Amino acid sequence: MKIGILTIGNELISGRTADTNSSFIARKINQQGWRVEAIMSVGDDFEAIENRLNYLLPLTDAIICTGGLGPTADDITSAAIAQAFELPLYTDENVLNYIKEIFTKYNLRWIENNAKQAMFPQGAEIIANPVGTAAGFVLNIKGKLIFVIPGVPAETIRMMTEGVLPVLRRCFPQNEQYSAKQTIKTFGLSEAAVDDSLKDIDFNALDVSIGFYPVFPENHLVIISRRKTLVEAQRKLKLAQDEITKRLEKYIFHYGEETLEEIVATLLIERKMTLAVAESCTGGLISNRLTDVAGSSAFFERGIVTYSNAAKIKLLGVPVDVIEKYGAVSEETARLMAEGVRKLSGTDLGLSSTGIAGPTGGSPDKPVGTIYLALSDSTQTLCRHYAFRWDRKRNKHVFSEAALMMLKDYCETQISKTK
Amino acid sequence: MKIGILTIGNELISGRTADTNSSFIARKINQQGWRVEAIMSVGDDFEAIENRLNYLLPLTDAIICTGGLGPTADDITSAAIAQAFELPLYTDENVLNYIKEIFTKYNLRWIENNAKQAMFPQGAEIIANPVGTAAGFVLNIKGKLIFVIPGVPAETIRMMTEGVLPVLRRCFPQNEQYSAKQTIKTFGLSEAAVDDSLKDIDFNALDVSIGFYPVFPENHLVIISRRKTLVEAQRKLKLAQDEITKRLEKYIFHYGEETLEEIVATLLIERKMTLAVAESCTGGLISNRLTDVAGSSAFFERGIVTYSNAAKIKLLGVPVDVIEKYGAVSEETARLMAEGVRKLSGTDLGLSSTGIAGPTGGSPDKPVGTIYLALSDSTQTLCRHYAFRWDRKRNKHVFSEAALMMLKDYCETQISKTK
């Protein structure tokens, strides 16, 4: 089956917004074993949308359109599609009521043009939007399906998975309908290096498809097996996973969908351990990531962002002469920060970061990208030191990643000790 | 002038690689005052490439293609374009010698298929590649230009700027070559409400284009005017900006590209003021955003994430009976947190947040989304209270936005006082 993707929006053809939806949709389509014939972007323009649809329709079995379903004047996708196929627009009362409920619930002011989001071309089957007001729809035009979903990435992702794929599967039944899937998360290798490590694996021979998804600073692999039985799909998947693990074991930190902060939170809660964090160059990012996890108050006691030396000295008890002798960015300071925050907070663990995020502040022996991390418990203080080479924001991000990884490794050692 | 963009590569239509080239090229084209008619991606496939080119050619004055110029078997772009327009391929001796020189210089082993990179369709004008072996070219097909450059982003960027744009400017002299642009950032209104407020402005009559760009929790407007002189473009832009300001003044917080944290940082540094932050529900996000700004150590002294009540009491000196009487999420606690962190840090300002990010922890009178913010200086403590209704991560984000907005408003009042 051949699919066309049409992303709609002036922000795409002006280059103001990068089109991440089309590659997401293309991945999903390829994972199903279907083929993307073409990807196109077009502005919010009646004639251009009509022209593209008429070009794509003979080339494909289905077209997936995103964007232009908002309430504003430049959101014309539904109207343009109605015009292209000479269909009248109608108001769907269920959708209208749903939108009005959302407005009431969130105490938003109702403006009449919001009703536009309840208008669809005649014959449309509605695709619910679980995360917003813009419902999608699918039209059957001479046996070909035209899907339209919103372009806000979070909504595209949900509706592609929960709305579009089920309809596609129903209308174009697959022989190999059982699938098994695994996400493998790696940290510490570039995408090219991951790719290179796996180049001798013949995934086709294993009947497994593989996708590479860089999510800075991680690289995720998604392997999917599609077979006639679930057992067979799982068996094939396991073989592929084992081959990947053999080659990348050192860099794999998780099999599954959880984020690193969720993994760390679960480990700490399981061990009934409490944590305090003292951050310098990461500026609150480690605390922020940990507190993104619902229920983090079970383990997260406090975070301290000691950006100034005075704060390191006063709040964490790092002696001034240690900072003077070794520098604020040093193993010695990192260790004392971790120990200080643990003791002062009365927690089981103290975690610290001190480094140079950039763009300035580097020196020949401590260049921008240098980070010292320390983790203290009641019996020991561990330290790790890395030199990364990114810009300020990415350095902060990779520093926080390394810190959470250190916590994860520590927790996992703890469980082996108690075994 | 209308431009088509065609990015070529199996990695694009499989979704394995996100297409960043097309948005880069689109931005460059729009900056010149030209228009992108369509963006397309296609696989490494003779028939499909020919089909797309024949579709794009009548719609556009020029097509910019990227990708498929490497030495391997799946790099077929030059051959596909030659076939599409029935042109023979020839070997360019200058390019061949240049590639051989590179191989010698970097001590690479010469393999015969590298010579493929010196083959071009008859009539091609070569576009030099300053950063790789894959030269590009431009063909004139019945008065329309077809550009082909490599798809490696670093090479695309260089060759687009140094190779493609000069040829386009030479062949299509611009009438309205001066443009003026303004970004207007708003906070506090939904995208629909912003649109509704502006619906009576006739931007076409003002010769100004407008784009809406939601960047949660902000909504940005970008207005662009393109005229024969810069003065005229700026005059038109000013008229449109004044109309927008008249309608949205209350919600506009910035004219320009700077982020809210950059704006706040500049204000604090200008006023030589120092800041300490005490965060509860925002979990370090306020500190993280402020320290994303390079040079933030000039004003940011420390941040404290007091997630537990014990930390609020011990680190900030909030009396236990205040927390017991009014609750940790209350105006009273917020005020004492801000005052406490300011006094303990010895900074000019203390900023605090306490609220309920969710998904649990809400109550009828303090639902999820409740936030109290306080800002303390040596003479007063201000407090703001909001009720938002997002999920945990978006609540944290909008809380931090409101906190930074409070800082911004405060700093701007300070300057008026000193005037």
Description of the molecule:
- Two copies of one chain form a homodimer.
- Chain A has 419 residues and is of the alpha/beta class.
- Chain A is 40% helix and 25% strand.
- Chain A has helices at residues 10-13, 21-31, 46-56, 77-84, 93-105, 153-171, 191-197, 230-248, 260-270, 285-291, 309-316, 320-326, 331-345, 392-418; strands at residues 2-8, 35-42, 62-66, 89-91, 119-121, 125-127, 136-141, 144-149, 178-187, 208-215, 218-227, 252-255, 275-279, 300-306, 349-355, 370-376, 381-387.
- A six-stranded mixed sheet of chain A has the order 2-1-3-8-7-6, with helices on both faces. A five-stranded mixed sheet of chain A has the order 14-13-15-16-17, with helices on both faces. The first copy, chain A, has a four-stranded antiparallel sheet with strand order 10-11-9-12, with helices on both faces.
- In chain A, helix 10 (285-291) links the parallel strand 13 and strand 14 (300-306).
- The radius of gyration of chain A is 26 Å and the shape is globular.
- At the A-B interface, helix 1, helix 2, strand 2, helix 3 and helix 10 of A face helix 2, strand 2, helix 3, helix 7 and strand 10 of B.
- Strand 2 of chain A pairs antiparallel with strand 2 (35-42) of chain B, so a sheet runs across the interface.
In short:
The structure is a homodimer of 419-residue chains. The first copy, chain A, has 419 residues and is α/β, with parallel strands linked by helices. Chain A is built from 14 helices and 17 strands.
Please supply descriptive tags for the structure shown above.
homodimer; 419 residues; alpha/beta; Molybdenum Cofactor Biosythetic Enzyme, Chain A; Alpha-Beta Plaits; Maf protein; six-stranded mixed sheet; five-stranded mixed sheet; 14 helices
